[in-house]
Amino acid sequence: MTRALNTLTLAFVLALPFASAAWAQQPPPGPPAQRGASGQRQGRGARGGTPDAPAGVSPGDVQRMFDAYTLMQAQEQLKIGEEQFAKFMPRFKALQEARRKTQADRGQIIVELRRLSMATPLDEAQIKEKLRALQEIDSRSVTDLKKSYESIDQVLDLKQQAQLRVFEEVMERRKLDMIARARASRARPKTPPQ
Q1: How far does the chain reach from its first CA to its final CA, in angstroms?
Q2: Domain limits at 109?
Q3: Same domain for 124 and 73?
């Protein structure tokens, strides 16, 4: 199993630069491209069209690769043995999934709140409803994360529990740094070939 995990980690590390570059090249969000009479996409861009997202690589794919990489690094950093890892892995994945679900649910409500707050006339009842839903998500998130950590802590010793909290902070910083670099490279104007 260790060989398979190391292979997965290596595959992630090798794929990450390509995924990051592809993600960074995606066009900024904007209005959907229109299709002309010929059926071709028309919109912004040098050739009159908006470039499509790279085939097979989406922000979700990058997130899943990063989650797999994080899991493998957790095993190594916390020095988790194979037997312990078999119990740790599904619990850690449940923690990652709880975070992703909260992020997605919050994101949807924030988008709705943005839309509602810019509408004329202002629909106060709907805004109040969305704000209540946001509070419910935040409350549920605290409960879900607490349960996930309690479950994980059942299979880790005290030192590993402390190391996991530090490890997660380091990995979160790395992820934010990767996102910032991808955005910076995306914002940099491309120089034409000479």
Answers
A1: 50
A2: 82-155
A3: no
